[in-house]
Prior knowledge:
Strand content: 15-25%
CATH architecture of the largest domain: 3-Layer(aba) Sandwich
Shape: globular
CATH class of the largest domain: Alpha Beta
Distance between the termini: 28 Å
Amino acid sequence: MNITIATQGGSAGGISQLAAGQIDIALSSKPIAEEDRTAHPKADFVTTQIGSDAVGVIVTKPVADAGVKNLTVDQVRGLFEGKITNWAEVGGPKLDVFVYDKEPGRGTREVLDKYVYGDEKVPPPPDSDNFAIVGGNLETRNKLESTPGAVGPLSTGFVEGRDKLAVVTLDGIEASPENIASGKYPMNRPLYLITDGEPEGDAKKFIDYLLSEKGQSLLEPHGYLSLKQIGK
């Protein structure tokens, strides 16, 4: 079985490519929404959950070491709206904040927006030289690691083992496997494989493998939770 995996493009991009027949399976961290079905009326989306993940508010290690180990939801909102512009305002070093946010439609962005705004309308991004929109996880991580004072949302699994970055607790709640599994950690999300119609052929073999004991065992070493860990 030959498998080609593209890791960039985001949840929305994967869903669009699946509907266009460009790929056989889309990996998504957001469920299929009504707007996806409206945008792609000919697609018969079938969703299979393979595990769970957490989105973290990621800061640089020097910022964390200087005192920013926890943020409240109001502080996160202030950072991403450009109202908090220096880390000293939240107990950190005298260093300008640089915000990297994800593109609209990305699963990571949707999780952050839901945590910060709930059902409120999300405001437009701040008009600031210290704010930038980024795309995939790799780009986001590289930007965070190379920018002093940076902050941004990113899958905690993508930060695993990185010595230049730190995941802050949110309102005192750590992104631990236990807190993710119980739903106590506020920015957790399922991981889905999505097919156009019921999976068959190599697509079904691939999904069945990831659902098997061996496939599920691959998740935890990379910072993700298996279905067993979340009680499914």
